[in-house]
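Q: Could you write out the predicted structure for this multi-component system? I'm mainly interested in how the pieces pack against one another.
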Amino acid sequence: MKQFYYKIFIIVAVIGLCFYQIYPPDKKIKKGLDLQGGVHVVLEVEQPPQSDKTLSDLSDRALEVIRNRVDALGVTEPVIQKEGTNRIIVDLPGVADTEKALEIIGKTAFLEFRLVNDNPEDIKKAEEGKIPDGYEFLYIKEKDERGIYRETAPLLVKKEPEITGAYLVDAYVGYEGGFPDVKINFNKEGAVKFEEITRQNIHKRLAIVLDGVVKSAPVIQTRIPDGKARITGRFTTEEAKELALILRAGALPAKVNVIYQEVVGPTLGKSYIQKGLKASLYGGIIVLAFMLFYYLYLGLLANFALILNILILLGILVSFKGVLTLPGIAGIALTCGMAVDANILIFERMREEIKTGKSIRAIVDAGYHRAWSAIIDSNITTLITGIVLFLLGEGPIKGFGLTLSIGITVNLFTAVFVTKVIIEWVIINMKVEKLRI
Amino acid sequence: MELIKSTNFDFLGKRKFAYIFSSIIIILGIVNFILRGKENFGVDFKGGDLLHIEFNTSINLTEIRGILKSIGDVTVQSLGKEGKEFIIKSNSGTADEIISVLKSKFGEESIGVKAKSVIAPSMSKSLREKALISFFWGMIGILIYLTFRFEFRFAVSAVVAIIHDLLFVISILALTKQQISGTVIAALLTIAGYSVNDTVVIFDRIRENLRKTRSTDYLSLFNKSINETLSRTVLTVLTTVFVVFCLFLFGGEPLHVFSFSLLIGFIIGTYSSVFIASAILIDWDKIKPYRFKL
């Protein structure tokens, strides 16, 4: 009897613990991007033509910068991780304005100050195709009245920047003459450099180039000694804020390309959940009804084990900080269908054993004992594929592999251990002498 | 209740018919698959953009198709009964252009983007590679485990049955003009892991009967084992099929092809544990006799 109490204590403790883990489910069970809406992006860092750093190092630096930017965006529970040598995975759950988020993450934000050559002769030559050495044509992109960026007249600018954003320590939005602009502060070294540049090039134009596009090209009016500069360029307040944020977070060390992007709106996620849960619920109810109908009391037992299986599965999912995705819900539904398989194997074995005329204790023992090898073998083969899906799957499929793997492992505990304890307890305490299947 | 009482079917005597049936479906399917080429794959495997948009009023499908003709290779599919939601698949990098074209035609506020996927060629390539690697490791894992638990011949037969099931499902997908996407790969791997369960149950009984009788009349011993386990083979797959069928009916668009694949795969998985996995062991023994040492 003593070992019974010990086993029942374990079962009750597990149930209690899992309840504690998942209650209240709305808050405790984290939903994947596909269910709560948000963006999943995979970025690939491009190897710059001349760089002494390895692609992997560049990616590490890029990851830092992207993390700073995402933090500045104020996204709750973002996931930012490196995959392979040069890929960065970014998950932003619950982000409403995905376009803006992507723009902020993906912008290289390489800021340069380059001198403009306004010599009419040089420009004329350059237009004829004879661009002077060390110079190139760059365009100013401006928004037209419909809000679409258009390229305006080209500027002949030096290829070599006078100073870059690397010396920048701060950037913030300012207003001058009623229009928003971005004010930047250089560090000490930058300030000295900037003073030198402005002193030597008074009355020349200095182009402010961001990612290869000229933002503006103001004329240097006077020597600027304090390391403060201003980027103008017909910004809206929103754009100025974004630019300041990106500049503060730092430039990406290399160009990054979006190679995979998955955006799910919040309403769609909700309808996914509703449909997925509805389908799982119906499936679950049919299985429960079928087991009850087919096996009567034993069916009731299998149903208890099934519900326990789902409860523990969710409990473990929460403990592992796993997320529930739509394929994950499907995985739980599948677990419902598969969870009773072990019980069917046991009960059918018992049915065979009844024919041999054994005592009820011997029938139960033989049923569990003989069905065990088939149960363990079939669960392990399913587990192998579940683990492979978890390890190699992308996004939501990972969630499917996770729920399937947990479900099938927990199944050994609920369908075999728990049901056996209950059956034996009932037989001993209720003096059952005949097994009805 | 007992739905299936003791039976005594000569399953393995009919294996030739099963070989012919499976071969016809798979050959038809594979021919279809090859003819379809890239069309077999969803955007995640061939690269491209996918948009799920919703208009605030219902719009004619042909009208949208006409408008988007200028962008090139675009397929538009209507979703739901109201004619407001559409799924648009296009070449890589054209999603934003499509949105702006539609917005300029129907007005800025008329369109909401419910979901968007952009998959560059380099990503779809690595997704394809990952899918293949998943299959490779899944199969190797099962092969090793079954060799360890049974015997090499059993493991090989079980894996051949799995491959049969997967080819069968892929064939049905090709014949019904459905596309293979990431979730279908998940479905295929689940089929691989689950359909082998029935095989394991039968093999488990074969192992038990072999130990008990030491019989070398494998054909009748295998048939006996299949008949003895028939009720549980049917019942276990039945409960799972109930669930998958509900996912298929009520799970909505994203789970549709996924649950369809599972449905076909699970049913065929049961068929193949009898007519492929067990049958191969018998024919293998005919070609190269072997005493099982289980």
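A: Regarding packing and overall arrangement: The mean pLDDT of chain B is 91.
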